[in-house]
What we know:
- The complex is a heterotetramer, with two copies of chain A and two copies of chain C.
- Chain A is α/β, with parallel strands linked by helices.
- Chain A has a single domain, classed as Alpha-Beta Barrel (TIM Barrel).
- Chain A is 32% helix and 19% strand.
- In chain A, strand 5 and strand 6 form a beta hairpin.
- The radius of gyration of chain A is 18 Å and the shape is globular.
- By secondary structure, chain C is of the alpha/beta class.
- Chain C is 20% helix and 36% strand.
- In chain C, helix 4 links the parallel strand 9 and strand 10.
- In chain C, helix 5 runs parallel beside helix 6.
- The radius of gyration of chain C is 17 Å and the shape is globular.
- The structure holds flavin-adenine dinucleotide (2 copies), flavin mononucleotide (2 copies) and FE2/S2 (inorganic) cluster (2 copies).
- The site of one flavin-adenine dinucleotide has 22 residues of chain D, from strand 4, strand 6 and helix 2.
Amino acid sequence: MADLSVKVCGVDFKNPIIPASGVFGYGREYEELFPLDKLGGIATKGTTLHLRTGNIAPRIAETPSGMLNSVGLQNPGIDHFIETELPYLLTKDLVVLANIAGSTPDECAEVAAKLEDTDVHMIELNISCPNVKQGGAAFGTSCEMAAEVTKRVRAVTKKPLVVKLSPNVTSIADIAKSVEAAGADAVSLINTLLGMRIDINTGRPILHNNVGGMSGPAVFPIAVRMVWQVANAVKIPVIGMGGVSSGRDAIELMMAGASAVQVGAAIFTDPYAPVKIVEEMNDWLDSKGIASVNDIIGTVKPW
Amino acid sequence: MADLSVKVCGVDFKNPIIPASGVFGYGREYEELFPLDKLGGIATKGTTLHLRTGNIAPRIAETPSGMLNSVGLQNPGIDHFIETELPYLLTKDLVVLANIAGSTPDECAEVAAKLEDTDVHMIELNISCPNVKQGGAAFGTSCEMAAEVTKRVRAVTKKPLVVKLSPNVTSIADIAKSVEAAGADAVSLINTLLGMRIDINTGRPILHNNVGGMSGPAVFPIAVRMVWQVANAVKIPVIGMGGVSSGRDAIELMMAGASAVQVGAAIFTDPYAPVKIVEEMNDWLDSKGIASVNDIIGTVKPW
Amino acid sequence: MKYTQGQYIIADKTAIAREIYSFTISCPEVAAVACPGQFVHIRAKGYTLRRPISICGIDKEKGTLRIVFEIRGEGTAEIAKLNKGDLIDMLAPLGHGFTVDPSYNKVILIGGGIGTPPMLPLTKAYGDKAVAISGFRNASAVILQDDFRKTGAETILCTDDGSAGIHGFVTQPLKELAEKGGIDAVYACGPMPMLKGVAAICKENGIFCQISLEERMACGIGACLGCACRTVRNDEEYFAHVCKDGPVFNAEEVLW
Amino acid sequence: MKYTQGQYIIADKTAIAREIYSFTISCPEVAAVACPGQFVHIRAKGYTLRRPISICGIDKEKGTLRIVFEIRGEGTAEIAKLNKGDLIDMLAPLGHGFTVDPSYNKVILIGGGIGTPPMLPLTKAYGDKAVAISGFRNASAVILQDDFRKTGAETILCTDDGSAGIHGFVTQPLKELAEKGGIDAVYACGPMPMLKGVAAICKENGIFCQISLEERMACGIGACLGCACRTVRNDEEYFAHVCKDGPVFNAEEVLW
Ligand SMILES: Cc1cc2nc3c(=O)[nH]c(=O)nc-3n(C[C@H](O)[C@H](O)[C@H](O)COP(=O)(O)OP(=O)(O)OC[C@H]3O[C@@H](n4cnc5c(N)ncnc54)[C@H](O)[C@@H]3O)c2cc1C
Ligand SMILES: Cc1cc2nc3c(=O)[nH]c(=O)nc-3n(C[C@H](O)[C@H](O)[C@H](O)COP(=O)(O)OP(=O)(O)OC[C@H]3O[C@@H](n4cnc5c(N)ncnc54)[C@H](O)[C@@H]3O)c2cc1C
Ligand SMILES: Cc1cc2nc3c(=O)[nH]c(=O)nc-3n(C[C@H](O)[C@H](O)[C@H](O)COP(=O)(O)O)c2cc1C
Ligand SMILES: Cc1cc2nc3c(=O)[nH]c(=O)nc-3n(C[C@H](O)[C@H](O)[C@H](O)COP(=O)(O)O)c2cc1C
Ligand code: FES
Ligand code: FES
């Protein structure tokens, strides 16, 4: 048994695997299959100040080795989260990352402020949702906006602040440096890549939102590259994600520089994916005689 | 038999399918399998002023539904192309797009100038190769640089000038508008997305160049989105590519706004892919009773 | 919701029409809790998303489920390649099924095309209290009529082109029966225009109506919010999810 | 280069060691033109890139090819799932094979591990003029020794751990034979360190040496420039491509 525990900005994870925001709800649905405390943490569904009904369906399309979604941040609002979902999650033995979003820096700060008096472990500020018109991706695609929203949230919270970055940018390393300078304790990446599918028989985009966020195995090589670039650009920890579907993928992302790994779309293919990934990582480390998963973080040797 | 012919900036293609630059060499190798005049055109391997030996191997890695390459613009130089490859290709009944690149705007212009006295049908200026240190992607990721290099090439050529765009940008529509304003007759997209894979057993990137360009079916939804965005942003024609592997894909890209379609990585999976795609497009159009492929270009009806 | 994920043996496979297959799957723990109107979420090798397919038969004694599906695209084509004896990967049973009320004396069950399979276990539940109306494009698309007859229900067959049964849509016999009166409930599954037509007739005649909806799904269990469906509950708009709140909804709740 | 792409029937499949399979493939037009040292490029269902596998046997009369490959990753695992009677999609024959010179009187053929299969047809071509040296990790990894013996060649078996044949590397017997003299050519395929060792011994002893290299490939036919290999030709550096200029190179041309 290798030691799988990691520490990310002072927070202890029993293992580095975390279901990504948006794919796992608030965990309840998957409890039917396995106890949540098998997981290192959970990133909860992106939550805004007020209830959001999200985009009109269809919201899901399939792509080669991946999928598009245009859920559009449907969520019951931060108050509901704090009252109904968070207390339950906090009874479990895992790290809770509250994923938050907003249409303005003010809204993001207001949401974060509401979490300040809770026992939530970390805040994951989503500045990269491609599926909402205002805020969302716009924050994540300019260094200034990214820094601005990070600063505002930083000002209201002492919780470890993870800023979640968009891959739909020319230089993700520059955005990462901006949010680091603005006070982020960590960055997480990647959010989804903007994509589109058309039903050629109807001549209509499959998604009612026309475009949506692509995720799943297809995006994995882009995630590896971005995690590597960002890990080399900033001093704060990086939480990696994007297309991870096996223990080998998680190890690859950690070698590229991730201190912990989130798992998204793979859960739709196999709901046990996060649990299996933990086991596969352990088996691989054991087979290599590596005592602790910390010994592989950022160890890739470039040519 | 539907009419598959299309016209792109005044050049007639008997059908809209073109093997993409870099995957098809100068066509000779594939002639063993089928006559080149089954194709609408051919985009030749990216050619620079002088011979380039390219990057050190490994240059190829596989990814879910895709691949990475880091060939690094290996080519025999423009003079060799003009003397040895072009005359042969011009004996065939298809449109020849000479794909060119350079480390500086000057070099690009010099290469284009050399083609001015040849009978090549179109120039495809690659401002987006992620695999070379200088020039390459750098030109394609800033509106100013993209416009600058386009202007310089425009100044020396009267040939239809297609500028090939990089997907590794925050707004590909903005880059497209810049090159349109700078005198491009058409744009082609997408080049490859920058990605990385690591061999976890050696702890080394699989590619000796560390990172490489991702292509293949995995990137198709990104190509559809970008073609759609660019087609809505510019008035010049768009040549679409990125992950096309079937007649349905080609039709989808044309509905999104492409006037012609290039096929890259799919040829590695099935060398007959471009020929089969032509047949599949024809069959689909016939089955729908659509008389001409022109009737589907840009017809997607957004919600 | 009680569901499991597992690999189950395909006990039987039959092609029942062109590109339409019937699988009998041995999955006692699923069969034990499954209800008419629920669905299974099937993994297709090589594809990221599972495919939702309705339950078409539940044999609690034998511990088997039956599904009937049509090849519509790449994923269903991949699933159709599985053979008797192979393992099928399912997340099941999922969703909220039909309301079966033993006090009802006469119910009408309507299936259109590949929407007929989920009506079969419900028809079985009502037996001779049921009238099962099925509609298809043409004679060669007709499926499951023997199965419906075996339930003891009265069966009515319609085809769009009249090549089998009544020439016309399922809404025709429904309208006649509804106007005659004495119907406690109508249940339907099929294409959207059909469901709208059915719902309208029921509303007009004040008959309780449940319909089974389709939407593109990812998780299948209510976690991803992918399969939104606009409904009204307690006079308020409610963003329901087809996989969890449905696929069966009371017709009056649905915002078409 | 004369090659074709097609779907060919697998006439025979055998597991010859742990995770190592031998396929006999009925492909008369490929067998007719194939030479020792060439390879086939096999499509693996669900994967973008084909897998290059050396030709291990050519039966021009029966119109069959033989390949022997090891499961190394996902693609070869997928190919290994194919069974006798199934179709295998190949682009073949590809590449530049070994130089077979009838005037040679004594040649040494060296295979290391999964590099032994391509040496078999070459050994057959030389028959009793050949000494076939094979090296493996251990006894359980040993393959093809009966086949080598049947060619009439003298065979020498080495294992790294001495669990079969000579304890040690293939370079040991090679060195002895080379120093004794009378060798016209040495041919080798196997891991890089082995090839380097073989090339060094041949250089020292002035023996003509050809080696078969591996590189990651996309097209397999010289079009994509993916499989670069640094070589020297006519005293100039030449960026060769393993799929077209190789996989067999004269050892002295290779820049290691
Ligand atoms: C609750 C429910 C029950 C169903 N029951 C049956 C049944 O009993 N028999 C049957 O033949 N079909 C049924 N369907 C429809 C079936 O799910 C689709 O035909 C199937 O998903 C299409 O997949 P594909 O691989 O053939 O098509 P593709 O076009 O390759 O699928 C691409 C993606 O779109 C989704 N998709 C495409 N069409 C539909 C659709 N109509 N509904 C939902 N998702 C879709 C797929 O699931 C997949 O994610 C049901 C759908 C739902 C939602
Ligand atoms: C000319 C040539 C002849 C060969 N002959 C044989 C043979 O006769 N028997 C045999 O067992 N193996 C042979 N190999 C090696 C074989 O091609 C690889 O083991 C195989 O491609 C690995 O694929 P995978 O799906 O198992 O691994 P994966 O790691 O899943 O493959 C990922 C990608 O890397 C490539 N790759 C991985 N390892 C190699 C490698 N060593 N060489 C080239 N590409 C690689 C794959 O082709 C694929 O594109 C030969 C290779 C070459 C170049
Ligand atoms: C259905 C769905 C909903 C998502 N919702 C959110 C969200 O609310 N907030 C967020 O930060 N990311 C959201 N994401 C992005 C994921 O958290 C993750 O960044 C992305 O999917 C890449 O990982 P993957 O390839 O493993 O899925 C969502 C992704 C999916 C597929
Ligand atoms: C091996 C390889 C080499 C390439 N070389 C070039 C090149 O020289 N010039 C260029 O403009 N694009 C080059 N490309 C990019 C392709 O032309 C194309 O834009 C990209 O691969 C996306 O299409 P696909 O997904 O169909 O492969 C290359 C792609 C591959 C796979
Ligand atoms: S499919 Fe995920 S909520 Fe319905
Ligand atoms: S693999 Fe394409 S040139 Fe060798």
